[in-house]
Amino acid sequence: MQRPLGMLGARLRVYRVRQVQGMQLEFPTTSEGLLERKFWEFHVNHPEVYRYLVQFARQWRSVGRSRLGIKALFERVRWEIGIRDDKPPPKLNNNHTAFYARLIMDRHPDLAGIFALRQQRVQSTFGPGNEELPPSEQVIGA
């Protein structure tokens, strides 16, 4: 099943809905970059990572904090998943952090602005457009 979720800038986002482990997940039907394709593949197969990230970001906000680094949350998720007894932990790829930050802020208005974003080399199919973000590399001496 496919359904459009709306516009972000000039990019129409079309999502595919899939049931995974009793949850209904949505992910883009097309993506331009290899990193994003690998992210969606991981996300669909390991929805618990996303749930932990959202839970911990909300916990951070609940104590009055406004900003947080996605990589700090990612390390906490590594810990939480690593100490559970039920199954071996998935390997968390640091390349996925930028996509998780965009996805969380895109889907959860209460967490909008919690993560700082930078331009991507290959624009993702969700989240803010590169034209709205600061460059990913700083130019020294400019």
Number of strands: 3
Overall, the morphology is globular
Helix and strand element order: EEEHHHH
The helix count comes to: 4
Task: Provide the structure class.
Answer: alpha+beta
How much helix is in the residues? Answer: 25-40%
| Share of residues in strands | 15-25%
- Number of individual domains: 1
Question: Largest sheet at a glance?
Answer: 3 strands, antiparallel
Write down the overall mean pLDDT: 79
Order of neighbouring strands in the sheet with most strands: 1-2-3
How large is the radius of gyration? 16 Å
Unreliable stretches (pLDDT < 50, length at least 5) are: 1-14, 138-142
Ends: how far apart? 49 Å
Describe the protein in words.
- The chain is of the alpha+beta class and 142 residues long.
- It has one domain.
- The protein contains four helices and three strands, in the order βββαααα.
- The protein has helices at residues 34-45, 47-62, 70-83, 97-107, and strands at 2-8, 11-20, 23-28.
- Strands 1-2-3 form a three-stranded antiparallel beta sheet.
- Strand 1 (2-8) and strand 2 form a beta hairpin.
- It is globular and about 45 Å long.
